[in-house]
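USER: Please consider what follows.
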Amino acid sequence: MEAAAVDRLNAAYRARFGFPFIIAARLIRDPAVEEATAREEVAQITRMRLDGLVAG
C-alpha cells in the first residue's frame, strides 16, 4: 500500500475513533499462538466485510 493511502486511512481512523491506528509486532510470542491470533483477526475482518456487503 502506498504511503498516501496509509496516511489517508490513518486520518480516517483517528477521526472516527479519536486515537491512532496501531500495529503491534509480536515477535516474542509462540508461533502457534500468533497464528491463532492472526486467524481470528482475519475472521473478524471477513465478518466486517460481509456485514458491510449484506447491509449494502
Summary: The longest helix spans residues 31-55. The two ends are 25 Å apart (CA to CA). The chain has one domain: 3-55.
